[in-house]
Design a protein that fits this description.
By secondary structure, this protein is of the alpha/beta class. Helices cover 45% and strands 20% of the residues. The strands form 3 sheets. Strands 5-1-6-13-7 form a 5-stranded mixed β-sheet. Helix 4 packs across helix 10. The termini are far apart.
Length: 285
């Protein structure tokens, strides 16, 4: 019996020694650590090192929001241009990588960002408290008033929010204008209808489906310039939260890098210069 116990102990010691020297054990630990690192990167988005290695960075936007982003179509050429595109190019240049653009509906952008379909979102997006629960934001790069867009023949009907009664107002789905309109217009009997695409909102306004559209200031003025039968009305709505760039939550490294680019642009008033340039640029070439 004693001999059996001694042999069992010796066998146990040998097995422990073999496991300690087994390179597979260390490989398993390394693999686990690698998986953990990969999961951390996935949770917070790509690191700057990963972006530089792949040679490009992906911007998410909704290109129907002039002068910040829209499709400039010239024959067979279709290019997305605008203020936000210039900012994104500056970010890519500072990283030494190319810029790729993913164009989609506005109300799906933050979900796509959190699903790692893009590295950041620039889409004339206000950094509201509700959005900050889902993503991180850069420093602001511009601020906007909120204006009403109506058919020219109706321009004298509305001077304040209280004048909006029993009409239909179009807003973009997921926008701060949709939230504000539902909280402040509907109590006066206004029907607030959200659509994903601002171009469709303008079309419905022109054909009489909507009595008005509620948008950020510069885009509202741009649409009025593009469609002479429309006119902008200031109904004394408060300004919306400043526009910022959305980054996946926890990716502090990318937020810091983007803020460096924005600081440089704002010091030179470059964003304001782009706003002026793209506002004046004709979109119906």
């Amino acid at each position: 019996m004693k001999k059996i116990l001694v042999l069992s102990l010796l066998l146990g010691i040998l097995l422990v020694g073999c496991k300690a020297n087994d390179p597979t054990a260390n490989q398993n630990v390394d693999a686990t650590n690698a998986t953990s690192d990969q999961e951390a990167t996935t949770q917070a988005g790509q690191s700057l090192e990963d972006i530089k290695k792949q040679g490009y960075i992906t911007m998410g936007t909704s290109a129907e929001y002039p002068p910040y982003e829209w499709h400039d179509i010239d024959g067979s050429k279709d290019e997305i241009i605008g203020v936000d595109i210039e900012i994104a190019k500056a970010i890519a240049d500072d990283l030494g990588v190319e810029l790729k653009i993913k164009d989609m509906q506005f109300d799906g952008l933050l979900a796509a960002l959190n699903a790692n379909e893009m590295d950041f979102v620039i889409a004339g997006m206000a950094a509201t408290d509700e959005r900050r629960e889902a993503v991180d934001f850069s420093d602001p790069y511009t601020s906007q008033e909120q204006l009403l867009l109506v058919r020219a023949e109706d321009a004298d009907k509305y001077k304040t929010i209280d004048d909006l009664k029993n009409i239909t107002v179009g807003v973009q789905l997921g926008s701060t204008q949709e939230i504000f309109a539902k909280e402040n217009f509907e109590k006066n009997g206004v029907t607030v209808t959200g659509l994903p695409d601002n171009n469709n909102i303008i079309m419905e306004l022109k054909n009489g489906t909507f009595d008005a559209a509620f948008l950020s200031g510069i885009p509202a003025n741009k649409f009025a310039e593009m469609h002479k039968e429309l006119k902008v009305i200031d109904i004394q709505a408060p300004p919306e939260d400043a526009y910022s760039i959305a980054i996946k939550k926890g990716n502090a490294e990318l937020v810091e890098q983007i803020n460096k680019t924005l600081t440089k642009l704002n010091e030179n008033d470059q964003v304001k210069a782009w706003e002026k340039e793209y506002f004046e640029l004709s979109t119906d070439k």
